[in-house]
């Protein structure tokens, strides 16, 4: 199994509108300079733009020195009639042919001969096709040594749990489902992953900045309800009483569970990356976790990071 660092680079944000080429490349350069060696992307991000940017930024780097993951289940097809349904320049395709085509096209955009890890990307409404076609295809790619590890990436915990139980993934990417604001993964996903030795990569731990007070942030891709906003404010109050940034607590929280080996961050600039690294290295007093439990914001049985995590 691939050994992952506790902090990885998610390359979605560098493909956002308004992020120039120089800024995107500089952000990845800063990540490399900091020692980050796990980079994640997907065809969906900017309809292939993220993969092209990441490939350009990593060009010339020794391929054996970093871990690279991308995803399958969406094909970049700007002129396809079905793109009107998705509202973007890509279409869903979880067929065997679609998976193989997706990987081939990703390698071309990335400018590499191989990726280390491959995730089936958000098969929420395509369970049967993903299980019967996508999964056997990626599993065979792993068995043949084309990729080193395969799994599924989703923004919901129940279906990830089903994949772990009904297939044989090496890892899952759990986005926004094990955070200070949403701990649904603790019900079944994390215990099942731990029991079966499946690595969990956590993403969206900051919920687009919502946990840190960003006013226009979304929660589960929808406007924030008052209960969630109040919970975020309550968490922030506790953190600030101890003089620690809420984002630092949120970024480190998922790593308290033994099944979670890595947290992905998604900066779009050198400055954001530096801030993420600072939060990841911020010592969190044990009293913060104790107070969050006392205030009913974390349950008593919920594991929290050890005191020396930030310096690990």
Topology:
Blueprint: E1 7-10, H1 21-34, E2 38-40, H2 49-58, E3 67-72, E4 74-76, H3 83-86, E5 90-92, H4 96-110, E6 117-121, H5 127-143, E7 149-154, H6 157-166, E8 171-175, H7 189-196, E9 199-203, E10 218-219, E11 222-223, H8 226-241, H9 246-252, E12 260-265, H10 270-281, H11 286-294
Parallel strand pairs: 1-2, 1-12, 2-3, 3-6, 6-7, 7-8, 8-9, 9-12
Antiparallel strand pairs: 4-5, 10-11
Kindly describe this structure.
There is one protein chain. This protein has 312 residues and is of the alpha/beta class. It has a single domain (7-299), classed as TIM Barrel, CATH 3.20.20.100. 39% of the residues lie in helices and 16% in strands. It has 11 helices and 12 strands. The chain has helices spanning 21-34, 49-58, 83-86, 96-110, 127-143, 157-166, 189-196, 226-241, 246-252, 270-281, 286-294; strands at 7-10, 38-40, 67-72, 74-76, 90-92, 117-121, 149-154, 171-175, 199-203, 218-219, 222-223, 260-265. The strands form 3 sheets. Strands 1-2-3-6-7-8-9-12 form an 8-stranded parallel barrel, surrounded by 5 helices. Helix 4 crosses helix 5 (127-143). The radius of gyration is 19 Å and the shape is globular. It starts with 6 loop residues before the first strand and ends in an 18-residue tail after the last helix. The mean pLDDT is 94.
């Amino acid at each position: 199994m691939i050994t992952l660092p506790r902090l990885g680079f998610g390359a979605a944000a560098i493909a956002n509108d308004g992020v120039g080429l120089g800024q995107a490349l500089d952000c990845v350069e800063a990540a490399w300079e900091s020692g980050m060696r796990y980079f994640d992307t997907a065809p969906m991000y900017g309809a292939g733009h993220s993969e092209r940017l990441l490939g350009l930024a990593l060009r010339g780097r020794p391929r054996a020195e970093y871990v690279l993951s991308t995803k399958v289940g969406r094909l970049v097809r700007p002129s396809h009639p079905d793109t009107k349904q998705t509202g973007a320049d890509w279409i869903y395709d979880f067929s065997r042919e679609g998976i193989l085509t997706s990987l081939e096209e990703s390698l071309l955009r990335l400018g590499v001969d191989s990726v280390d890890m491959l995730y089936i990307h958000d098969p929420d409404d395509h369970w049967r096709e993903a299980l019967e076609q996508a999964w056997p295809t990626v599993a065979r790619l792993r068995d043949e040594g084309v990729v080193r590890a395969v799994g599924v990436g989703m923004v919901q915990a129940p279906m990830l749990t089903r994949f772990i139980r009904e297939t044989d993934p090496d890892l899952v990417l759990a986005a926004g489902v094990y955070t200070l604001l949403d701990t649904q993964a603790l019900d079944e996903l994390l215990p099942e992953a731990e029991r079966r030795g499946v690595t969990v990569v956590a993403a969206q731990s900051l919920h687009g900045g919502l946990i840190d007070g960003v006013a226009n942030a979304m929660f589960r891709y929808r406007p924030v309800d008052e209960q969630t906003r109040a919970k975020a404010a309550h968490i922030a109050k506790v953190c600030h009483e101890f003089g620690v940034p809420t984002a630092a607590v949120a970024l480190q929280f998922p790593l308290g569970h033994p099944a979670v080996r890595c947290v992905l961050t998604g900066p779009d600039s050198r400055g954001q990356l530096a801030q993420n690294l600072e939060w990841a290295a911020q010592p969190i007093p044990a009293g913060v976790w104790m107070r969050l439990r006392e205030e009913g914001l974390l349950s008593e049985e919920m594991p929290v990071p050890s005191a020396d995590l930030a310096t690990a």
